[in-house]
Amino acid sequence: MNKRFWLAGLMLGGFLFGAETSTAQSVTFNKDVLPILQRNCQTCHRPNNIAPMSLLTYGSTRPWAKAMKAAVVTRKMPPWFADPQFGHFANDPSLTQSEIDTIVKWADSGAPQGDSNDAPPPLQWPENGWTTKPDIVLKGVPYTVPPTPARNVIEWMTLTTPTGFTKDTWVTSVEIKPSELAVTHHICISFVPHRPDAVYNTLLWVDKQRDGDGVEVAPSERKFALPTADGRGRELPARADARRRDAGANNTGGDGRGAGLGFTCYVPGRALSDFRPFNAALLIPAGYDVSWTIHYTPNGAELTDKPRIGLTIAKEPPQRLLIEGFGGTDPAKFAIPPNDGNYAPAPSEITFMENADLVWMSPHMHLRGKDMTYKLILPDGKEQIVLNVPRYDFNWQLGYQLAQPIKVLKGSKLVVIGHYDNSANNKFNPDPNRTVYQGNMTWEEMFAPFFAITVDKSVDPAKALKIPFTGPGGA
Q1: Does residue 278 lie within any of the structural domains?
Q2: Same domain, residue pair 78 and 225
Q3: Can you give the pLDDT at residue 249?
Q4: Which of 27, 272, 335, 418 has its CA at 20 to 30 Å from residue 59's CA atom?
Q5: Is 237 domain-assigned?
Q6: Virtual CA dihedral for 92, 96, 100, 103, nearest 10 degrees?
Q7: Contacts of 125 (CB under 8 A, 6+ apart)
Q8: Per the structure, how many domains does the chain have?
Q9: Does residue 252 carry a pLDDT above 50?
């Protein structure tokens, strides 16, 4: 009797094990995994884009099966840092538990390819790594990043190039595309009025006084004046010298023109600003120029970056006008004490001077950045958290596009708070034993909560918002 039960149990166990194995083996790349990759991963994981490997085909994906399993189980990939308790976002690439289980089963069963007839049609991505096919491509100036520059510092550079627009143009998306992502810290651009004395296609910068660690010396501690020459040792033209200023002193880091129109940036994890989902666009007047702020970081290899801007153009005037901007805090009062694991600067406050729709947000800090929270305060005093990023990651500076725009009444405020970890517990911290101030370099800090709104086309963009302490523009 016992023997029969033992045999029956053995047979049942074998049957169940066989069923489980069969289920695992039935998960294939073509039928089950490829659709997940198309929905959630291929935006980055394709040739000439930010991810280190392509996940477009079985051949390019198969070697990474075990690594994919580890990345999705820990939810390291796809990168996404918004607290799900606050807000719903149209561009959330997070995998469901079912999708994670599918990738795990596929990897554990030997990562089979499956029947090619089960594969969905390949997504048609634009050539050369663009996320969206541009109607117009504007080129920057090539720059060779040396493997080991003096003091290991490349200062922010500014650049002016023509748009070539001969008529007023509605721009519906802006994508900034460096060719050498490994050394590109950020590139920010805006559209500005043409000046008769504009110097085109010339990179300009100022060599700042820095200490042995590359940290900018405070003005009160400088022993000599800044040079009247650009970073190549050439004397600056009088007109450029007259308006030269610290790249962090205005929104674009340019030549004192201010933010201009369509201020947007490439930073790791974010390259495309797409206004089409909001039925919005930027109106760029004829004859405007592009003002660039560019920051490279050497990595030990000599690389020549050839940045480009891809624009899509509206065939018909859009319904709404888009405005991008960012907040900040008083840089004179920003100082992270040594070994402080939870420093909070004064909050950023942005006041809405017109009715608007809030559509997009993106926190920006550097290596000590810890968290950032966006909160709307309505004219009647009611408060609403619209984005909470409890674990900021400098390597993935994501933009968060709201699934539904949030109506914001005139007189409302967007208040943003953040925290920094300058302790030894922060593995990315360059030096927990020094006070950290705002500055352009990665080892210095920034507090720049980016956001985008849309307004009625009759609104003057320059008067739609009140933003004090808009510090270093870009990243």
Answers
A1: yes
A2: no
A3: 35
A4: 272
A5: yes
A6: -80
A7: 42, 46
A8: 2
A9: no
- The pLDDT of residue 268 is above 50: yes
Phi and psi at residue 439, in whole multiples of 5°? -170, 170
Mean pLDDT of 12-20: 42
Inside any domain, residue 117: yes
Q: Describe the chain by its helix, strand, coil percentages, rounded to 5.
A: 20, 30, 50
| E strand intervals along 409-460 | 413-420, 436-437, 450-456
User: What's the CA gap between 225 and 453, in Å, rounded?
Assistant: 41
358 and 453 Cβ atoms separated by less than 8 Å: yes
Three-state DSSP class for 192?
A: strand
| Largest interatomic CA distance in the chain | 103
- Tokens representing 54 are 């392509």
**Which one-letter DSSP state was computed for residue 391?**
S
CB 64 within 8 A of CB 29: no
Around Cβ 390, how many Cβ atoms within 10 Å? 13
Query: Which tokens in the block code for residue 313?
Result: 């153009």
**pTM of full prediction above 0.85:** no
474 found inside a domain: no
Residue 258 has pLDDT above 60, yes or no: no
Q: Please tell me the distance from the alpha carbon of residue 229 to that of residue 206, in angstroms, as a whole number.
A: 7
Residue type, 67: A
| Token couple for 59 | 């051949």
- Is 192 found in the same domain as 65? no
Residue linked to tokens 């101030």? 437
CATH code of the domain in which 306 resides: 2.60.120.230
How big is the chain by its Cα radius of gyration, in Å? 25
Shared domain check, 140 and 115: no
Q: Name the one residue in this structure whose structure tokens are 């980055």.
A: 44
151 and 114 within one domain: no
Main-chain dihedrals φ then ψ at residue 69, nearest 5 degrees: -60, -50
Torsion sign across C-alpha atoms 33, 38, 39, 42: positive
Domain that residue 86 falls in: 2-122
pLDDT at 244 over 50: no
